[in-house]
Design a protein that fits this description.
This protein is α/β, with parallel strands linked by helices. It is built from eleven helices and twelve strands. The strands form three sheets. A five-stranded parallel sheet has the order 4-3-5-6-7, sandwiched between helices. The protein has a five-stranded parallel sheet with strand order 9-8-10-11-12, with helices on both faces. The chain has a two-stranded antiparallel ribbon with strand order 1-2. Helix 9 links the parallel strand 8 and strand 9. It binds fructose -6-phosphate. This is Glutamine--fructose-6-phosphate aminotransferase [isomerizing].
């Protein structure tokens, strides 16, 4: 059942090329240059879009909302548990998208029900056929990741990212051929990352660190949050993810030579340049820097270690960079002898609010 892997988590990390292909299968028509999601055809929507989700799925929701905003759509992600107390305005013109792997997370179901009561259209983006979210929402988009046994979400996060990228083409601008090809190529690039990664060596170097920090901008900001969440969950070590620009507004005080900073930097545009500026601030305080990068900028000059990914657009790069961070967390937990598939105090699906 674990197919020779020591843990389900490692197996599921390695399943990503095939689970991502499954997510895309039949949904990209390269001849026509279109995205084909018949399950969403009935949604005729040009109002605001609100994502509600928890934990890892919230990080995917942040990514999805940003992707939609690049098409000019008014889209925002909310923590499902805060949705009600945030008093988010919602009415008949709103599309509320619940991102939930299990389809059973109580906080997310509650937020979707509130949205439904306010007259919103609801959409479940889920992995689980006939789950509560799938049954209760007006529409459902399946991420088709296959069963995930490890409590820490890995392959389902990547499939949420791709499913939300597809969703953006359905609800936002039509795709260009280049964008479709870029999506199609992601599963193969994940395979390349799995075959070439140095994550284990990086984990060995930093297994005794005091804490682990993760920074990124744009699509890499949710990846920084997710990298830290994975690290916390399975290693029980202190880890935090920050928007790279926020470092200087407080977290920099935590940085020492015993706190590695993982920085996701891809491309060589404005976003990369700014994050490199933050990396230099960290380096000046003697913190070890691990750059997750495609090698197109000079960030490696300021980094102690590099985890390389193929050079692709930032959206695809966020999927690839996340795989590297999944592996770093896995190997740190493995070296510490943690209960990786069933971390203490955590359950796979959280059915209380
Ligand atoms: C982290 C993790 C949790 C879930 C969260 C939401 O690895 O698995 O943070 O992402 O409990 O679960 P779903 O997606 O089932 O709603």
């Amino acid at each position: 059942e674990k197919s020779g892997y020591d843990h389900y988590m490692l197996k599921e990390i390695h399943e990503q090329p095939s689970s991502l292909r499954q997510c895309l299968r039949g949904r990209i028509d390269e001849l026509e240059g279109t995205v084909d999601l018949p399950e969403l055809e009935a949604i005729d929507h040009d109002g605001p879009i609100q994502f509600v989700a928890c934990g890892t799925s919230y990080h995917a929701a942040l990514f999805g909302a940003e992707r939609l905003r690049t098409s000019g759509v008014d889209a925002h992600a909310f923590l499902a548990s805060e949705y009600a107390s945030d008093r988010v305005p919602v009415d008949e013109d709103t599309l509320v998208v619940g991102v939930t792997q299990s389809g059973e997370t109580a906080d997310t179901l509650r937020a979707l029900r509130e949205a439904d009561r306010a007259g919103a259209t609801t959409l479940a983006v889920t992995n689980t056929v006939a789950s509560s979210a799938a049954r209760e929402c007006d529409h459902t988009l399946y991420i088709r990741a296959g069963p995930e046994i490890g409590v820490a979400a890995t392959k389902t996060f990547a499939s949420q990212q791709l499913a939300l990228a597809l969703l953006a083409f359905e609800l936002g601008d039509e795709p260009t051929r280049g964008e479709l090809e870029a999506l199609r190529d992601i599963p193969g690039q994940v395979q390349t990352v799995l075959e070439t990664t140095d994550a284990r060596a990086v984990a060995e170097t930093f297994v005794d660190a005091d804490a682990y920090f993760f920074v990124g901008r744009g699509y890499h900001y949710p990846v920084a949050l997710e990298g830290a969440l994975k690290m916390k969950e399975i290693t029980y070590r202190h880890a935090e993810g920050f928007a790279a620009g926020e470092l200087k507004h407080g977290p920099l005080a935590l940085v020492t030579e015993r706190t590695p900073v993982f920085a996701v930097v891809t491309g060589d545009g404005e976003t990369a340049r700014k994050t490199i500026g933050n990396v230099k601030e960290v380096e000046a305080r003697d913190a070890p820097v691990v750059a997750i990068t495609d090698g197109t900028s000079d960030v490696a000059r300021y980094a102690d270690h590099v985890l390389e990914i193929p050079a692709v657009d930032d959206l695809g790069a966020s999927v690839l960079a996340n795989v590297q961070l999944q592996l770093v967390a896995y190997w740190v937990a493995n070296l510490l002898g943690r209960s990786i598939d069933k971390p203490r105090n955590l359950a796979k699906s959280v059915t209380v609010e």
